[in-house]
Amino acid sequence: MKKDIHPEYREVLFHDISVDFKLLTKSTIKAKETIEHEGKTVPYVKIDISSASHPFYTGTQKILDTEGRVDKFKKKYARRK
């Protein structure tokens, strides 16, 4: 393999903030934050949906609107009287 062309492959902690589920896995993602986990400092990435909260895996349906998209859609396409 060529030197210095591959991204760094390291342990990263992904945190599903909607159900407080944490997953430590290896990834090449660039993270801005770090966190202390089991005595090691690892990169930390917040995510909105994971297998612990996705409707396909959980069998439940819920609306996760973190950026106001539903209200924006309703306002834009609301029937005018």
Question: What does this entry look like structurally?
Answer:
It is a single chain. The protein is α+β, with helices and mostly antiparallel strands. The protein has one domain (10-77). Helix content is 16%, strand content 33%. The protein contains 2 helices and 4 strands. It has helices at residues 55-58, 69-77; strands at residues 10-16, 21-27, 33-37, 40-47. Strands 2-1-4-3 form a 4-stranded mixed sheet, with no helix packed on it. The mean pLDDT is 85.
Question: Concise description?
Answer:
By secondary structure, the protein is an alpha+beta fold. It contains two helices and four strands. It has one domain (10-77).
Please report the distance between the alpha carbons of the first and last residues.
66 Å
Instruction: Tell me how many strands there are.
Output: 4
What's the helical proportion of residues?
10-25%
Strand order of the largest sheet: 2-1-4-3
Q: Strand-and-helix sequence, N→C?
A: EEEEHH
Number of helices: 2
What would you report as the Rg, rounded to the nearest angstrom? 18 Å
Task: Show unreliable segments.
Answer: none
Q: So what's the overall shape?
A: elongated
What can be said about the biggest beta sheet? 4 strands, mixed
Structure classification: alpha+beta
Report strand %.
25-35%
Count of the domains: 1
